[in-house]
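User: Second chain of the day. Same drill as before.
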Amino acid sequence: MEADGLEWLVVPMHQLVSWGAAGAMVFGGVVPYIPQYRDIKRTQNAEGFSTYVCLVLLVANILRILFWFGRHFESPLLWQSIIMIITMLLMLKLCTEVRVSNELNIKRRSFSDFDLNYFWHWSKFTDYMQCVLTFTGVTGYITYLSLDSFLFVETLGFLAVFTEAMLGVPQLYRNYQNRSTDGMSVKMVLMWTSGDTFKTVYFILNQAPFQFSICGLLQVFVDMAILLQVYFYSYYPQKPASHAAHPASTKAL
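Assistant: Same format as last time:
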């Protein structure tokens, strides 16, 4: 009788927790980029942030949305991808404007140059938009033609989450190049780690497609590696990267 009496409280509480978890999944992924965005805007310096992070997340979330058309998964994960794409475009816009305003080289690079040496290092935000729209159009058309193939759909899902699992790798490499984590928001990486841990547990508990859980674990390991870099470079400062390596570092923006 007592258990029945508490049912009126347990059911709404369970629903509230479910809504909270879904909301955290939708918006939690973009929270780590708020301190980084504010730091870049305040200092007018984007050197410490690799915009290849934006590239990885744009590709991953576009592929994830396409995967949804072949195999429907939970709506919060779909909305998370849409919100993340918008956020990454805003980050790209800010980083491009800051970099171009600080750049001494007056020569402008554009997507239509098709110069691989300057891929993802263009001078205008519109060039990045052209690239993203081209990628979306091509992959969307291929997906439309191949939706009946179980192997294609499952491979698409794996590529989407595996690409996202590699999110931290550009930042990991950039830190290694610079022999420092200066300019990178440690808050951002801490939020990455907590968010990816929560996300992976969410995938497992809600029985999301297995690709999500496996790649979520990989993502947590990469986050931990970046945090180890923060500790290592803080307590054991390294010599700055040589000037010969500087162009490659600049290109990573």
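The mean pLDDT is 82.

User: Great, on to the next one.
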